[in-house]
Design a protein that fits this description.
Alpha-Beta Plaits, 7 helices, alpha+beta, CBS-domain, four-stranded antiparallel beta sheet
């Protein structure tokens, strides 16, 4: 799936002259942790709640006067933002977004198209996407199985699904399960789900778990 399907379009953003006090108030009021810094539609950087915590004096530090807190809050976000942040396009696959979040240890990535900020995608958005893929509808059945790493093993399972006329709503593969096997999970819907399970067993596949999805 692609970023454009899960990114947030209504992005709150600030200019480089915004003070860190104002930025902190926005983050606190809106209850999020990342704030793009822009010049018009052009992305200049991003500032996070962690950046602001480092920029502002500790409220419990008795050696810092109230006046010092006020002065510190007037510093511009441009002094503490991350310039040239990691960005993605609307067509970036979600797995690439996940890799970037992990690689750079960040919680959100601005989405840019033709030089303009058009959205943002966060860890929470990825969790929503993953849940939508894995949860499924109430009538769905999730089957987790161990299959051979040969490509033919994958297609044998798919052919079984076609034979029993079930709809495959999602497929996930974990190739590093072992040196000889990969973990395959399918979410299916159809009247012959039970017959399909028997057929998969007959292929010599080990089924770890079968889950009938139910309403929450």
């Amino acid at each position: 799936m692609f970023t454009k399907l899960w990114m947030q379009l209504d992005v709150i953003q600030v200019g480089a002259d915004t003070t860190i006090g104002e930025a902190k108030e926005i983050l606190t009021h809106r209850k999020f942790r990342h704030l793009p810094v822009t010049d018009g539609d052009t992305l200049l950087g991003i500032i996070t709640s962690t950046d602001l915590s480092k920029a502002m004096p500790s409220p419990v530090d008795s050696e810092i006067s109230p006046e010092d807190h006020i002065i510190a809050g007037q510093v511009k976000v441009s002094a503490f933002m991350s310039s040239n942040p990691v960005t993605v396009s609307p067509m970036t696959p979600l797995e690439e977004v996940a890799n970037l979040l992990q690689k750079y240890k960040i919680g959100a990535i601005p989405v840019v198209e033709e030089g303009s900020l058009i959205g943002i995608i966060t860890e929470t958005d990825l969790f929503r996407a993953f849940r939508a893929i894995m949860d499924g509808a109430v009538d769905d059945v999730r089957i987790e199985m161990l299959i051979d790493k040969k490509q033919s093993a994958f297609y044998k399972v798919i052919d079984c699904c076609k034979q029993y006329e079930v709809t495959i709503n999602s497929i996930s593969l974990y190739g590093d399960y072992s040196s000889e096997q990969q973990l395959m999970t399918i979410r299916i819907n159809g009247k012959q789900s039970a017959e399909l399970v028997d057929a998969i067993w007959d292929l010599g596949v080990t089924i770890n778990q079968i889950t009938q999805l139910a309403a929450e």
